[in-house]
Amino acid sequence: MADSRNVHNFHIPVMGIGFTIDTPVKVAQYGISSVISIVDDMLVEKMREFYSQKIDRPFHAITDKMEDFRAKRITAYLDIVDDIVNAKFQEIKQSVIEKGKDWEKYFEMLPDFSELKKEFRHLVQDHDYMKKLKDWVNEKMAVGSIDVNIMTKLDKENYKKTEKLPVEFNDAHAALRGFANSKLSSSIIFSAGMNPRLYSYIEQFDDFYPDENGFLNKKVILKVSDYRSALIQGKFLAKKGIWVSEYRVESGLNCGGHAFASDGSLMGPILEEFKNSRQSLIETTFEIYAAALKAKNKVCPEKPLNIRITAQGGVGTAEEHQFLIDYYGLDSVGWGSPFLLVPEVTNVDNKTLEILSTSTEKDFYLSNISPLGVPFNTVRGNTKDIEKFELVAQNNPGSGCPKRLLISNTEFTEKPICTASKKYQKLKIQELDQKHLDKKEYQAAFSKIIDKACLCVGLGASALMANKMPDTVEDKAVAICPGPNLAYFTSVVSLKNMVDHIYGKSNILKRTDRPNMFVKELRMYVDYFKNKMTEIQEVSVEKQKQSLQIFREKLNSGIEYYKELFAQKLQTKKLDVVRDFEKLEKELNGIEIKFLMVEKKVDLVS
Hints:
606 residues, alpha/beta, two-stranded antiparallel ribbon, 9% strand, disordered C terminus
């Protein structure tokens, strides 16, 4: 069951480093939950200075000369965001009581089926409602959650001069501490896989343990790719006495930013497993959780705490949104990339807004620009790419790497460096030059080297530009991380326009050729499989045979699931969607024939 304090059944996920860094300030007062990235403490500090000036609050810089500066910057920024949101929310509640105007937007954006909206309408019909109104407002109206996101693998070790600092000063550890020490009562979202050392560090903070009423002041949300991953991570944290309050399922390819492709498992079947196994997940983890709390002499709830199951990735219509809620029993659906076209909500500069609103399917693509070596959704023509290729033309490829948030490569150095940096690309090109390849092979290898982009700076630059903050090294060019779904959204709209679209009160999609979200995901996986096939060298076909076979089988299994779901269980006008699945099924099986032909060739040679 959905938490009654969540007045909306959608949320705004984290986008990049800076696109949603202050989104709660813009939407939380309306009961809408959103997520801040806390990976970049330098940007966080700049945003704190910006908002301190905006609300006329003294600003005292937290410099990198101070002890534990990363955690302190994050805590200070989250505290000021919390203060601003609470002040705005109090103004809205007061306007309800005083018959002002600020409250109207809050209630107008609620869906028509909202119990809160119905209660309010019923209340104001009572001639004596003013006596009851204040208590009702304080009891029923809820602010949106100010959640934060950490990519668990971005846990770089840090140094003081040449001395390596203890593990708690690693990037992700310090970010976790910054959130834990803040006055927020909200959730931390762990994405991009399991980090046992980081998860164990949560034990040190009391806010993650329940009070005598079973209330968690700070909660944990896990972004997961499938049920098995959720169960493994949930049990691991339960053994530490940490409850996972939400499992957030994300489509592997049909989502913005880094694309963590699954082994061929598709979103629908994954959500079906969560739907069928939800109670088992709760019971299994609670048994472990209760034992851990008792062993620690902590307060132990008599019954399991609430668990929310949510999902995000590629949703674009009210019909899709409501289907996910109704059929899979989801508590909330994440709407990410479409909000990049809502200046009231996200930080997107005017040039990038123009690119996003005019680009078509062929412009949104899965790239290799990320220094992490993970496929990354982006759009052609973004200003970071333009800057990158201008530097290559000047025979000066790579970035200066001012932030060092994504450093990971040790091919040429003892300490990790970033594959988008000038240092790495210079060394890698020198290595390439010594191989004396033919022109075609050389160009292919060279392109792979210089394709990497500085995402640390590029994904945060727009926040500075959109807020007209002072020129810095960060605001020269913008990298952007939209999901492919954004190709069908072609207008810059208001917050209310977008919320009305989500709830089916209006339709902002001008195009009529948008495929179903599940079809689009399958299309991307078939293309991904094709690319994997072309990458295979004949000598390694046998070695990769098993994983590719499993990948293909799971895609075919997913197709059968969707065909049955749309043709039989839904029994609506979905025959066109079934045909889309059948067409992709045929294409996938065509790839299988090519695969077997290559394999046969290798067998003959051997």
